Amino acid sequence: MSIPFTDEELLPAVERCIAKIEPMLALDGGSIKLITVKDHVVYVQLQGACIGCPSSKNTLKYGVEKKIKEDIHQELSVVNVPMGAEQNLEEFIRGLQR
User: Fold this and answer.
1) Is residue 2 part of a domain?
2) Span 65-87, mean pLDDT?
3) pTM (predicted TM-score)
């Protein structure tokens, strides 16, 4: 099954989903910022207490990605963009694809 939506069509739904997730992260001093949706991959940036937290990978996979898949589409994936990497996002994405 492929995703029947363009990245542009997905963006508002992802924004709404991130807005639901953010208060949960804030309880532990964390935050999340949506960077973009590109080729059906959601790029976010975990911020605040999430930076350097040993549980941040689990938060991303079993919290953020799980909620996005439940609410929007099962084939979406989520990638955390490290602080500063958003400045050269295309280069960061190319590095992931290697």
Assistant:
1) no
2) 96
3) 0.94
Burial of 86 (C-beta count, 10 Å sphere; 0-12/13-18/19+): middle
What are the structure tokens assigned to 44, written together?
A: 């976010």
Give the span between the Cα atoms of 68 and 53, in whole angstroms: 21
pLDDT for 98 equals: 80
Position 1 pLDDT exceeds 70 = no
Structural domains counted in the chain: 1
Please give the Cα distance from 88 to 10 (Å, whole number).
22
Contact 12, 59 (CB under 8 A): no
Spatial separation of the C-alpha atoms in residues 6 and 48, rounded to whole Å: 30
Q: Say what percent of the chain tops pLDDT 70.
A: 99
- What is the rounded distance in angstroms from the CA atom of residue 12 to the CA atom of residue 44? 14
